[in-house]
């Protein structure tokens, strides 16, 4: 495969095959049930086939279609097991795997980006990709000074493919939503569109990575590889060796899970204060746990700029909610534009609605699990009429959209890890506004949340 397929009709047909084939399998499944086959066996077989096709089509198309698959793999922790289990393995493959470009295409792109003498910059260069993802693939090489390096190369035609994918996926959103019950697909697609278009700019990504590398230089908890060279469609940076977070999710030890969860939380809350940037692509394929226990971070295509650090209102509202100050929570949310002037909710009802979101902050440590996340997702899909009205009228100002999405995406990964993390301690140390009130009771249980 020399480049991402760009023909609109070809890409539309392949994307359309996902929900149409799913619908066909549903019809076939009902037929099998009518002739006496077991309902559970029929459903499992239909979902297994759908999962295989999701990986095959999205992985082949790469681009925005594959980003959609990656987003599903982050949020699957909140989907009930009877729906999520058949997709889990197939979607996890999307995080670091896709059909790679042939060596001839790689060599042509390297010459276009780094000049015809590009090989002189390397002692060795492996023409076979070591990882292939949504808009680019990575090659392992040895830099001219002997350092192991990763060479990230953008696929030809990635920009056109991304736009085509997102346009078609948006049209297919209602059908795609049928494949994963409970998932609100259209807002997710809108967020993915903004993110993936940013990721086409490798010059900006290299600048982001340099900023993170400087901010976390010599840090005992993090390893951010240095950028050695960059071009519009190529980035050369130090190689990071470690256990991928996806592998820790599937087969890691409890110690690895807790360590990865702690460091992911620390990265999320400390980076805005240390770097003025928020790492905004929290899927497991972007993280590794190194042999010495650091979190390696290897992708900086999507970030949020927070030059003043994380907004203090987030910490203040969290503290007020924990303290049960319903009137102050309402006033604070209204002042920041979360509650519009023409909406007048009952403060206590609003506090009750928000309470589960603050639950990890009530205890010294919190056990993040799929069971807990699924309970929150089930609650959100079974709201009372009053709660539904509240949810519909809570406004999310544009400046908070990415922070909200990244926070919940990170919590989704923590739940996949099944990690116990000192969430409150990290928030108290790094989130502005949280310590404006008195400290919480330190006698709270050491390990809470569903097993």
Description of the molecule:
With 451 residues, the protein is α+β, with helices and mostly antiparallel strands. Among the domains are: 131 residues, no CATH class; 125 residues, no CATH class. It is 54% helix and 11% strand. It contains 18 helices and 14 strands. Helix 2 crosses helix 3.
What characteristics describe this protein?
single chain, 14 strands, alpha+beta, 18 helices, 54% helix, six-stranded antiparallel beta sheet, four-stranded mixed beta sheet, 11% strand, 451 residues
Concise synopsis of the structure shown:
54% of the residues lie in helices and 11% in strands.
What is the count of DSSP helices, taking H or I runs of 4+ residues? Answer: 18
Give me the secondary-structure category. Answer: alpha+beta
Shape: globular
Radius of gyration from the alpha-carbon trace, in angstroms: 23 Å
Helix content: 40-55%
Q: Residue-averaged pLDDT, rounded? A: 79
Unreliable spans? 5-9, 22-44, 440-451
**Secondary structure: number of strands:** 14
Kindly estimate the percentage of residues that lie in beta strands according to DSSP. Answer: 5-15%
Distance between the termini: 45 Å
Biggest β-sheet description: 6 strands, antiparallel
How does the SSE layout of this entry go?
Blueprint: H1 8-34, H2 39-61, H3 63-75, H4 81-93, H5 103-114, E1 122-125, E2 131-132, E3 136-143, E4 148-154, H6 158-171, H7 173-179, H8 185-199, H9 202-215, E5 222-223, E6 227-231, E7 234-238, E8 243-244, H10 245-251, H11 254-274, E9 277-279, E10 287-289, E11 295-297, E12 303-305, H12 312-323, H13 326-335, H14 347-354, E13 366-367, H15 370-381, H16 385-393, H17 398-417, E14 420-421, H18 423-430
Parallel strand pairs: 5-11
Antiparallel strand pairs: 1-3, 2-3, 3-4, 4-7, 6-7, 8-10, 9-12, 10-11, 13-14
Helix pairs in contact: 1-2, 1-6, 1-7, 2-3, 2-4, 3-4, 3-8, 6-8, 11-17, 11-18, 12-13, 13-14
